[in-house]
């Protein structure tokens, strides 16, 4: 229930929001604050969905406001209508842990509101890329009626009528989901924001901060070259003491790395970011460049330095990071996972995957990789025991995530355990999961029971259980009737003719190879081996065999991977990735000479990949051979000559 105290300014805290078409997330936001705010002010800038209807369940203070492509104007309209001593500003796609919010009230009551200042709080934004979270300090709480207001039409900032507004930190975490690819696509946020910036450009009022925020917009939609142009304009002669200096610098370096402008990235790391070398960001970002160049051991050392800084800093009272604690945790952990995967060191891979899940329990791909490794050597009970430690609360979301990973892996014991746990707790696991479980258990009656509720086809993934069922039970009746989706149409035809006994060989297109790859991997996971072999005999594609071999290698099914590699070697059709994998396989066995031979073959096929030369130089003891290959490599990537010389001499 919303706090309520009669009388103007007797109220302590007003939530002020601007909204438009937020029906999907608004309830989550308002539910998170209703226990500790006195009033909720909603400014609607033109919703056409149920946003205002949902808002009306929480407040009567809902006001229409004509959108003039100016966020500050809308924000100021909201705070103008507030009647509490303090203002809290949130967006609809944000929320707060209730316990944190309740603790805010006594803190605000203890503060002197006669002074002009604002509280900056950490905003954690889920980006959707690798499950990562970015953290930023943003001013969101301030006294009402003190001449404090928003300015700038986009990425609006607080200011005050008497000059610079003092900011003080307060640890109230705000969680933001608005920058996941799904949300950006649904709401077209970047297009809207870019239109506002164009208007600002036309007015001739763009400042360094505006170029910085415009760079952020381009970075979000992966237009890295445009982002670089904006970041460089913002960063030129930028005062290092400004709050956004470090974010602008790191954003610029990230874009350089994304476009393989590694010389520029490394220059900025050593010239500018190195002044903060006692923070994890310096070491983690440096590790990224080193890894891109193939200096994996040097990258590992930098990642370990970042982790040590974070571990030592976490015991103190001050922040040990520049822009996000992830640079001392999740990011270097991810670097080390890739390092130890390459080494085929399962123990260390499991260790760092577990460390990631401790901080990102909802990161599905990490969980899937972890259970995949564990399933090859551990019992079901051992895996469940570890999962209980990683997911101690066993919420509905936790159990569903664990079930999905188990079904994707097609592990009988784990799938049965987590399905039973969800059913016992009264949770719905969905039609798709039931269908996959029926395939796993070879239970045709269970499959038929849930197939009735199967959803409409949108993607091949949606009908994969039906495709598997048709092949498992050799029955074309299970094939989806709706074949309007082109990918489904191809697989439908191929499976149908195979069930009918057609043994003719097809030569698939590149797009069809990917579809067949997905189907064959699923058949392998679900141990439908006989059908797998039948389909493989109908396909003529060295590229598909390479794809499958590399999949088995990456998933530590080394015997099958090497069988496929042997076939491809005999036919002279092994691709560069296969040669590279075989090189690392032999390096890991201590067989340097054999590994170097495979790496040289990889270079012959893909001469422009700098990582091959770096790895060869690290493993080869013959300086003449190393020098010859570097000379060849620099013909393909001359832009790295100076940088590699610098790194190898450090």
TrEMBL record:
GO terms for molecular function: transferase activity. Transmembrane segments: none annotated. The keyword DNA-binding does not apply. Residues 14-98 form the Glycosyltransferase 2-like domain. CDD domains: Beta4Glucosyltransferase. Keywords: TPR repeat, Transferase. PROSITE patterns: TPR. This is Glycosyltransferase. It comes from Cohnella endophytica. The lineage of its organism: Bacteria, Bacillati, Bacillota, Bacilli, Bacillales.
């Amino acid at each position: 229930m919303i706090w309520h105290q009669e009388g103007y300014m007797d109220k302590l805290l007003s939530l002020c929001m601007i909204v438009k078409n937020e029906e999907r997330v608004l309830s989550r936001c308002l539910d998170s604050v209703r226990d500790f705010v006195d009033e909720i002010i909603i400014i609607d800038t033109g919703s056409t969905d149920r946003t205002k209807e949902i808002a009306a369940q929480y407040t009567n203070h809902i006001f229409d406001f004509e959108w003039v492509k100016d966020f500050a104007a809308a924000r100021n309209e909201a705070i103008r209508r507030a009647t509490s001593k303090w203002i809290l500003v949130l967006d609809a796609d944000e929320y707060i842990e209730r316990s944190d919010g309740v603790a805010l009230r006594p803190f605000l009551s203890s503060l002197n509101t006669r002074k002009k200042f604002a509280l900056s709080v950490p905003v954690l934004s889920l980006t959707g890329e690798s499950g990562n979270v970015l953290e930023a300090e943003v001013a969101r709480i301030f006294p009402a009626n003190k001449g404090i207001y928003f300015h700038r039409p986009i990425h609006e900032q607080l200011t005050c009528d008497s000059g610079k507004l003092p900011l003080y930190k307060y640890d109230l975490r705000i969680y933001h989901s608005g920058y996941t690819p799904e949300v950006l696509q649904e709401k077209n946020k970047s297009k809207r924001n870019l239109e506002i910036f164009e208007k600002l450009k036309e007015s001739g009022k763009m400042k360094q901060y505006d170029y910085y925020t415009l760079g952020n917009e381009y970075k979000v939609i992966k237009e890295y070259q445009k982002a670089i142009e904006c970041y460089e304009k913002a960063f030129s002669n930028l005062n290092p003491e400004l709050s956004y200096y470090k974010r602008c610098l790191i954003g610029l370096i990230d874009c350089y790395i994304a476009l393989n402008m590694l010389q520029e990235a490394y220059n900025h790391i050593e010239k500018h970011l190195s002044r903060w070398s006692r923070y994890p960001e310096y070491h983690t970002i440096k590790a990224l460049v080193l890894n891109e160049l193939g200096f994996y051991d040097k990258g590992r050392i930098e990642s370990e330095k970042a982790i040590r800084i974070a571990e030592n800093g976490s015991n103190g009272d001050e922040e040990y990071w520049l822009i996000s604690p992830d640079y001392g945790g999740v990011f270097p952990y991810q670097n080390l996972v890739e390092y130890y995967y390459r080494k085929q060191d399962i123990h260390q891979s499991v260790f760092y995957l577990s460390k990631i899940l401790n901080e990102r329990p909802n990161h599905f791909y990490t969980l899937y990789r972890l259970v995949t490794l564990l399933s090859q050597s551990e019992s079901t009970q051992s895996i469940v025991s570890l999962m209980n430690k990683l997911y101690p609360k066993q919420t509905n979301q936790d159990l569903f995530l664990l079930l999905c990973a188990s079904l994707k892996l097609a592990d009988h014991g784990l799938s049965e355990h987590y399905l039973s746990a969800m059913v016992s707790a009264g949770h719905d696991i969905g039609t798709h999961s039931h269908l996959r479980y029926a395939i796993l258990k070879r239970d045709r009656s269970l499959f038929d029971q849930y197939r009735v509720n199967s959803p409409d086809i949108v993607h091949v993934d949606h009908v994969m259980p039906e495709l598997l069922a048709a092949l498992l039970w050799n029955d074309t009746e299970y094939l989806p009737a709706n074949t309007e989706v082109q990918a489904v149409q191809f697989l439908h035809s191929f499976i149908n003719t195979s069930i009918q006994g057609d043994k003719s060989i097809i030569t698939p297109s590149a797009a069809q190879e990917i579809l067949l790859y997905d189907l064959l991997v699923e058949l392998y996971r679900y141990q439908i081996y006989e059908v797998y072999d039948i389909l493989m005999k109908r396909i003529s594609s060295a590229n598909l065999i390479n794809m499958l071999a590399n999949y088995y290698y990456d998933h530590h099914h080394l015997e099958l991977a090497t069988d496929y590699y042997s076939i491809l070697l005999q036919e002279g059709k092994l691709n560069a990735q296969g040669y590279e994998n075989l090189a690392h396989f032999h390096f890991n066995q201590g067989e340097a000479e054999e590994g170097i031979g495979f790496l040289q073959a990889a270079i012959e096929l893909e001469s422009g990949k700098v990582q091959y030369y770096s790895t060869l130089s690290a493993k080869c003891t013959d300086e003449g051979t190393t020098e010859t290959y570097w000379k060849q490599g620099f013909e393909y990537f001359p832009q790295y000559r100076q940088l590699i010389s610098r790194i190898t001499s450090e």
